[in-house]
Amino acid sequence: MYLPKHFDQSDPQQLQQVMQDFPLANLITLGPQGLLANPLPLLWLPDAGGAGRLQGHVARANPMWHDSDLSVEALALFSAGDAYISPGWYPSKQQHGKAVPTWNYITVQARGTLRIIDDCDWLRDLVGRLTDQHEQGRQTPWQVSDAPADYIDAMLRAIVGIEIEVRELTGKWKVSQNQQAANRQGVIDGLQQQGDAASMNMAEQVRAASA
Description:
By secondary structure, the chain is an alpha+beta fold. The chain has a single domain (5-82, 105-175), classed as Pnp Oxidase, Chain A, CATH 2.30.110.10. It is 35% helix and 34% strand. The chain contains seven helices and eight strands. Helix 6 runs antiparallel to helix 7. 27% of the residues are buried.
């Protein structure tokens, strides 16, 4: 990915936080007909001395698990939000008109070796951990044990596990760092005026990068 120095985010904690907070990734692999892209929720796990592991599952009917070339590294793309940025928000635009639209976004790319895991016990443990992570904080969290055992067994037979041993994490925080302070504040104000969740999230990201 094109990565100008001022947009480079190399803090491992920041990168890991994005993968935990925005776990739905686009997993890119290479198949016999070319590139395969599958949106999958992935669970990041720390790994002593490394960049960690990503675990998830796909439907058994999905050809990705048997068509992907395991000798070629997989690429998981995570997004932590984006927003259109209007040049009308820049005070400098009023001064000289030299401004154009752009798009702000935060993305993390995880690259590593893909492994296929067709093991019912492994999958049962993974599904339990995924469920616990995403149900936490709910008034009545759903648990795997809430469903009939034979139903869960059938569901587990219909999926296949995947694991990526992450070799490299790359983060790009394009949040108006290349703009002067007044323009960054204009972006924050413009996004906040829009008021939707995505705009408010990006306003906070621009503010944090400006601190």
